[in-house]
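User: Hi! Is it possible to get a structure for several chains at once, not just one? Here's what I have:
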Amino acid sequence: MWLRSYSTSLYLFLYAPIALIMVFAFNAGRSGLSFQCCSVQWFGRAFGNPFIMEALGNSALIALCSALLSTLFGTLAVFGLQRVGGRVRRFFDALTYCAIIVPGIVIGIATLIAFITLFDLLNPLLQAIDPALPRLRMGFGTVVAAHSLFTMALVMVIVRTRVEALDKALLEASADLYAPPLSTFFRVILPQIAPAILAGFLLAFTFSFDDFIIAFFVAGSETTLPIYIFSSIRRGITPEINALSTVIIAASLALLVASRYLQNRQPGA
Amino acid sequence: MRGDSPMNTAVNASPAGVAPALGLGRRITWLLLLPSTLWFLLLLLMPLLVILVFSFGERSSVGGYGGGFTLDNYLALGSRAGAFSNTLVLAPLGTLVCLLVAYPLAYFLAVKVRRNRSLLLTLVIVPFWTSFLIRTYAWIFILGGKGIPALLASLGLEGVRLINTPTAVLVGIVYGYLPLMVFPLYVSLEKLDKRLLEASGDLGASRFETFRRVTLPLSAPGMITGVMLVFILLMGEFLIPAILGGGKVFFVGNALVDLFLQSRNWPFGSALAMTLVALMLAIILVYLKLAARFGGASRDGVL
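Assistant: Yes, the chains can be modeled jointly so their relative placement is included. Here is the combined structure:
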């Protein structure tokens, strides 16, 4: 049947480029584009490269912070929105979709200019208060803040779907049995929405770890992993970058397998 | 969270006599909403407002923003017509090719496959979870001089150039966004009641007729969602043209990076960014209107 062979060839299309990078990571030669078998030296070189390690550390920390912030703030907002009237809620909906629809590149540019303008205003003030205060500048904090905008909107959409699908009868039953609201929250609501929160967290982490364009604008002098990879492939592909990419791909595969395993272990999650 | 359920959908408007209780409830509500409000204000509304203002300003002599009010930036947009025409051709074209390539796969997964369906579906999603940048640069190997062109040359077909052409960018687009298109299509095809297909066949419709008049209309929500997702991301695309277009095929995104980070012409860059957003919104609105008219009961499918 043609549909089957078509689908098989699409799977090849999806995986061939990834496989190619992994093969080229074991290149014995120096050129990124021609292959000589076989060596693992580039893995050692990649992990011995202080710039790569710094970028990796930055990316992981930024992704962790923005995922934590956005899951926390996003979930709080979902519960806050359950308690307000239609007009406020529609306003928040509009903002949420706006944050999702406006292209990352425009968000990056707009935050860059806004931050620079704001910092130029605030820094003289801060210096006037106490010259020992550190100056505000682009870097770690600005990347986390800018990433959290998009990922918070994402978390809000995911968690809200789950919250609205909650069985109201269970909540009423809990209240009828004189459970205080907080214990209803922790013992009835939270277990049911936990998978959605976790999904939001993972999605936020992946987005932030993977994002190039927003970080490219607002990272200042900091380097994240995508920024490092981008600037080095501009200079030409090296086996070192292929080795690094192979490790990243392997890590994300491991994460995916782990999350599938966790999901299968909890029926109904 | 006073005595009533925390799932309360609305705070009572103005009940007399419960002022203290309501006060606390209100305060909790606003506390819950405070961080997200702050984020939206400081990182979405304020920045967008700032570039809106900047887009009417003049460039200062050292780059950056020099104040003033002028329409010159918008009038000068013509100098970047190439970026706009590339984006406005390749973004819709890429979305369409994505849809055409993805549909049979989604149909296969949702309707034909019985065993290993969730594994096969995961295999489609896996690339989406791996770095977009890495997946894109992998195509430099395949499309570059020592890849497919060398292969074709050994078959006697000399002088084929792929890298840094619109074709390379299109391939990168389809490759990058295929998983994102397959998923919503799969969801809507999977929900489709298979008995309808049998009924259509029993009533004498050919397989093509069944597909055209039953399957296709019922999968419209998935198509609309997939097209929206991919199109939105493509309009702001930077990486694919930067890596596979090699400065020859550039999108508005590439022009923006150039204006902000290289030539530091912020007012003109702001005008370009505002125009991009306005264009996107206009296209999405028209598209949704058309989709609502021709797609019938498809409104629940969008996001």
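The mean pLDDT of chain A is 88. The domain at 54-235+244-264 of chain A is CATH 1.10.3720.10 (MetI-like fold).

User: Great, thank you!
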